[in-house]
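Q: What structure does this chain adopt?
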Amino acid sequence: MTEPRSLFVFMHDSPAQWEDDLNRYFDFDHIQDRLSCQGWRGAERFVLSDVEPAGWNPAQRWTKYLYFHHVDSLDALTSRAREAFAAGSPWARAQREQQRPGGVLAPNRGIRTGWTQRPSPWLGTTSYRMPPPRVIYVVLRDVEPDDDDAVNAYLDSELVPEMLMSPGFLHCERYEAGPALPATPGSDDVAPPRYLDIFDIASPEVLSSESYRLRSSSLSARGRALSQPITVRGAGVYVQRSSPWMIEPWNPHAPPPGPGRG
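A:
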């Protein structure tokens, strides 16, 4: 049996005046550090789009940025190898010292979470994703503990399959939060959500379409009854940022491309 996938997700905002530095830090320092640690795999960074899902409540706006790391297991998140990079690169340390005591590179809101993928009973033999840049619709939920089984059964057997039948919805993965991780400094009072749903969609506009509006406004009697124990902590449509750390290897001894090659 295939082991469920594990995911590390960092969701964050940043002060506008330090946003460029923070993006430079993640793109050229932090992610490379993590990818050099045993058990840390591919990374993707996303930025929140301007599209607001139909029926969206402004209070549900989540962070502007998020990034994913696929990891071999959640143990990788607390390994000694990962901790070895906690101080950051020389560039990052210099930025902290020169621009703000305590760390210019600290976001003003950040949530670090580890996730384990739940079974996907709605998936058939074929699933789809669009070519990059990837576009995703993210929903973060809390559920009253006594209603966990009923709510997840509804999401797995009814809500997710119906969404995947909506035009532009291509793929879905559902995750459950793992053990709590140390809080991001300055965000100690932000409790991580319990569930994370990631939908691959064809474009951001899918979430503002009439077909999605009609689907989201016509819950079944079962869905309406189970809406009470569900709290949507955050939602948003995110577009993948460029990935400068994904560099193809170069072999200086390989012959140059010739006719019919390369």
